[in-house]
């Protein structure tokens, strides 16, 4: 199946006009599979970290959301230990008017504002709510250890 | 009735095929997705009665938010607007598969069936308020 124009256009723009702090590069042998990096946002526990993710565009895209997963280990209440992300726009709130760049921006924003009330990683969320200082220290520690 | 459970190790392909066919069935998708939206998409009649937009009305260079192509690029462009906002325009070809699965506008997430229903109710109410024989006669004159 040939690659839809929309995907080609999105890819070109991701490369020519990248989102600050985000890179997304398609594999040359599979243009639906992207290597992604997201810089940890300033004044978050992920600051100075460089997080690797994988992003895949299913055949049904954009009728369904891209599949995105963290490859770098991260301590975050909405990201589980397999790197799966709990984010509304990747699930029920996907819209075909959203794009790869808007999704990656949302993930970057999720790093700035964790939401422990809608957790995917329950233990992390509990810690985030009950022992916030410790949770943030752990997140910083993991960032230094794994995200560089 | 008894089920023959295939030996998983020797029948991985068969199992995969069965799983795939189950997962790709629209019924399964509705069951799986039921929790999130609780509603499936619109029917064909809804799609057939969407307002069609003439190319003259569209700003130059405007694009379909779904395929991101210029509305004028197709050979036979067929553009429609959703009831939520007159600016929410899409290629019919692009919006149809989405609305068949979801009732929401891709741009504002409004339930398009609810919006249309409310609009119709509003029109009926207005007609009743302004109503009376006078208006009816006036209405007929238009066609006279």
From TrEMBL, chain A:
Keywords: ATP-binding, Nucleotide-binding, Transferase, Ubl conjugation pathway. The keyword Transferase applies. Its EC number is 2.3.2.23. Residues 2-148 form the UBC core domain. The active site is at 86 (glycyl thioester intermediate). SUPFAM superfamilies: UBC-like. The keyword Nucleotide-binding applies. One of its GO terms (molecular function) is ATP binding. Coiled coil: none annotated. Belongs to the ubiquitin-conjugating enzyme family. This is E2 ubiquitin-conjugating enzyme.
From TrEMBL, chain B:
GO terms for cellular component: cytoplasm. GO terms for molecular function: ubiquitin protein ligase activity; zinc ion binding. Residues 131-144 have a biased composition (Acidic residues). Residues 124-144 are annotated as: Disordered. Keywords: Metal-binding, Zinc, Zinc-finger. PANTHER family: E3 UBIQUITIN-PROTEIN LIGASE GODZILLA, RING FINGER AND PROTEASE ASSOCIATED DOMAIN-CONTAINING. This is DEKNAAC103935. It comes from Brettanomyces naardenensis. The lineage of its organism: Eukaryota, Fungi, Dikarya, Ascomycota, Saccharomycotina.
């Amino acid at each position: 199946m040939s690659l839809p124009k929309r995907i080609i256009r999105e890819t070109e723009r991701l490369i020519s006009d990248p989102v600050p702090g985000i890179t997304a590069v398609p594999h040359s042998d599979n243009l639906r599979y992207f290597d992604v990096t997201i810089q940890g946002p300033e004044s978050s526990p992920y600051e100075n970290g460089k997080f690797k993710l994988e992003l895949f565009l299913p055949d049904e895209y954009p009728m369904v959301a891209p599949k995105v997963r963290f490859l770098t280990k991260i301590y975050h209440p909405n990201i589980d230990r397999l790197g799966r992300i709990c984010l509304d726009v990747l699930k029920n709130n996907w819209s075909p008017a959203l794009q790869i760049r808007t999704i990656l921006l949302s993930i970057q924003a999720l790093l700035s504002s964790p939401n422990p009330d809608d957790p995917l990683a329950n233990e992390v969320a509990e810690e985030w709510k009950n022992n916030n200082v410790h949770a943030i220290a752990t997140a910083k520690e993991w960032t230094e250890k794994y995200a560089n | 009735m008894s089920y023959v459970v295939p030996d998983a190790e020797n029948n991985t392909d068969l199992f995969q095929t069965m799983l795939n066919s189950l997962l790709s069935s629209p019924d399964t998708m509705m069951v799986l997705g039921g929790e999130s939206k609780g509603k499936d998409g619109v029917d064909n009649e809804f799609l057939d009665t969407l307002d069609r937009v003439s190319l003259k009305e569209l700003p130059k260079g405007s694009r379909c938010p779904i395929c991101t192509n210029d509305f004028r690029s197709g050979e036979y462009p067929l553009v429609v607007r959703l009831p939520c906002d007159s600016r929410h325009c899409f290629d019919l070809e692009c919006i149809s598969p989405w609305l068949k699965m979801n009732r929401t506008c891709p741009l504002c997430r409004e339930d398009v069936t609810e919006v249309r229903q409310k609009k119709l109710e509003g029109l009926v109410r207005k007609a009743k308020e302004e109503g009376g024989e006078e208006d009816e006669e006036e209405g007929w004159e238009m066609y006279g």
